[in-house]
Structure formats: structure tokens, C-alpha cells
Write the C-alpha cells for this entry.
Amino acid sequence: MRALVIGASGGIGSAVYQQLQEDGWDVTGLSRSVDGFDVGNEASVVRAMERLEGPFELVFIAVGILAPLWGAPEKTIAALKHDDMARVFQVNAIGPALIMSRLAGMLPKDRRCVVATLSARVGSIGDNQIGGWYSYRASKAALNQIMHGAAIEFARSHKQSICVALHPGTVATQFTANYAGRHKTVAADEAARNLLAVIHGLTPAQTGGFFDYAGQEIVW
């Protein structure tokens, strides 16, 4: 079984990469720090994806930012800045969409395959009770829509494919260090095990869904 982990040097991505290796998978990783893979740059995405050779039974996309470097998620809509919001969308939604646009030929058509991307519960419109974090919330909502649409398209040619968005919980990584607050956190290796357990339990009937680390469906 072969897996591709994009964002393999990040907190959750590296933990998923290591866990898959321990489970006996043949794992290929892509990351900015090791491979120069810049999800926010279309040419970088195209070059990296063209060098890959499938098929992959699992593709795990673990890329994202809360805010641009030296920035912070907006507390009010008045705090929105054009360039900051554009950068968050570039990394969190447009980048994964470009990855998805190159994946169909790398997935097997004759057996089960999964494409999973890290989303976030705060991307749920129905679950938003406190507002704020406009760019991050909206970019993750856009990502969920991209995954849902791709799932419909992939299912036409890859009958056993599963494309999902996953919420990992609040994971103790550098990504969340300044924002975890009173939220209960889990270690990255535990989060990886939880997410992989959900992935391994999914069926093609659940493609296009949005699930948390326990396998519970999240409202759009």
C-alpha cells in the first residue's frame, strides 16, 4: 500500500507520515522545508506533482495557516486586510484545490483509495456560534466545498474513491501554540492515530463528507 503525505514536515503531517511507515505503508512525503514544495505557488505545485508516480491508495493533505507570518486571526470583521485574507485563502483553499486538480491520474481505479485533507471545525457555517477568525473560517469552508465537489467528480471515474475533509481536534503543535487557550489538546502522534483510524473506517458511501477525529460527521 502506497501513501502520499503533503505537508509531511508539519506537526500533524509528520506524525501521519511516521505512523503510516510504522504500519507498513510505502510513504512518499512532500514539504516546503525538505522539498521546496510551496502550496501557495502554482508552479511549485505543478512541478512537484509532475514528478510523482502513482498509484497511491491514500493521499493525506496536511497544509494550512491560521494567518500570514507575524499576523493573527481576525477578532472582528473590521480587522480584515486584503493581502492577509488572500494569503490565507491561497494556502488553505487554492493550494489544496491545485493539488486535487492533479490527483485523478495518481489514484487507482480498481480498488479503494482515499484523499483526506485537514480542515477544521471552525470552517463549519452551522457550528459557528461566536464569529471571528474570518479568513481562516472562510478558507476552511471553501476547502470543504472543494473536497465535496471533487468527491462527486472522482466518484464517476474512481468508483471506490473516498474524498473527505477531516477535523483533527486541537493538536499540540507550533501551529496552535498561541491559540489553544482553554481547549483540550492532544499530542500530534495521538491525533495521527485518530485520523488514520477514521480514514481506514470510511466507505465510498461517505465520500464528500466532513468528519472529526472520532469519525462523527460535522454539519456544513
Summary: The mean pLDDT is 94. The longest helix spans residues 134-157.
